[in-house]
Amino acid sequence: MMKFKTSSIPFLCLVLALTLFYTRQFIPHNLSSPDGVSLSQAEADVITLHYHERAPYYMTGPLGVYGLCADPVKRAFEHAGIPFRWEKTPAKRQLDILRANTAKDCLIGWFKNPQREKIAKYTHAIYRDKPTIALARADNPKIVSGRSIEETLVRENLILLRKTGYSYGPFIDAKISHLNPRQEMTSAENVGMLRMIHSGRADYFFISEEEATALTATSGLLATDFSYIRFTNIPKGNHRYLLFSRQVEDAVIEKLNLSIDAVCK
């Protein structure tokens, strides 16, 4: 063990005192990010992007979250210089999070409707779907392509499968509300809904064409077991938006809108 001479103790005390003095003078008590914002403030400014696995819109891969909606969102946030983080959240919980309005939260790729506009702030559209179709069993003789959507909805021998809390866009939502077709409600994700169609629990459900292609290819069921039902009077595809909790400042929304217009078109 190293021994110190008694005479060296005052010198060591002086060194220790000077070290503590300069540490207190020149090392900040709160660590800061490179731009000078305290980490606690920087963390408070981070927006949580909620998503769930839904090909081809948002999926998790080796390099992170990607997809038809995830990619433009990532570009827009990075272009605007707004910090964000991804969080996988069940679709059913996402609207509850916005209603709670306890943090800076964002849902990506959702449709706009009056109920959601009461609880959320919207950006400009980040993506536009192809026209909506329906998926049905290929061997189901009760439903065929080439009819109007009204002709399909009013058929009493057809059961529409609907996901609880989902919107299919203003056109289809209004038709369902007005015509009140036979319906089977579910909280299942799309692959579960596809299996319900396959097992005969319902006849069809609405879906965008690009999503139908990804779903039938990855569901584990034969894609040839299903058919695309197209409608003669369906409008152009629905726009998809970012929905923010009201904790997010309007200035942030405006900044993102500029980025969306610049990099997402």
Summarize the structure.
The protein is built from 10 helices and 13 strands. Strands 1, 4, 5, 6, 7 and 13 form a 6-stranded mixed beta sheet that branches. A 3-stranded antiparallel beta sheet has the order 11-8-12. The chain has a two-stranded antiparallel ribbon with strand order 2-3. The protein has 265 residues and is an alpha/beta fold.
What does this structure look like?
By secondary structure, the chain is α/β, with parallel strands linked by helices. The protein is built from 10 helices and 13 strands. It has helices at residues 9-26, 39-45, 70-80, 91-100, 114-117, 149-153, 170-179, 190-198, 209-218, 250-263; strands at residues 47-51, 59-61, 64-66, 84-88, 105-110, 121-122, 127-128, 132-137, 160-163, 183-186, 204-208, 226-229, 239-244. Strands 1, 4, 5, 6, 7 and 13 form a 6-stranded mixed sheet that branches. A 3-stranded antiparallel sheet has the order 11-8-12. Strands 2-3 form a two-stranded antiparallel sheet. Strand 9 (160-163), helix 7 (170-179) and strand 10 form a beta-alpha-beta unit. Helix 3 (70-80) crosses helix 10 (250-263). It starts with 8 loop residues before the first helix and ends with a helix. The model is unreliable at 1-6 and 11-39 (pLDDT under 50).
